[in-house]
Design goal:
mainly alpha
Length: about 55
């Protein structure tokens, strides 16, 4: 159970870091807009981001 909880926390942190980074690279609200307008692209970009960190 602890491992599952730790994994969930790591996932949340990675998503938050992804959002903060893309907002800095593009514009504030970019990640939220992408997730809303094109969920598949958001998931793809998030997956690429996490893969860079071997996660």
């Amino acid at each position: 159970m602890r491992m599952h909880r730790a994994f969930a926390i790591i996932i949340k942190v990675m998503i938050q870091l992804f959002i903060e980074l893309t907002d800095q690279i593009f514009w504030e609200g970019y990640a939220e807009q992408l997730a809303r307008n094109n969920p598949a692209a958001f998931q793809m970009e998030l997956a690429e981001f996490t893969e860079c960190y071997n996660f």
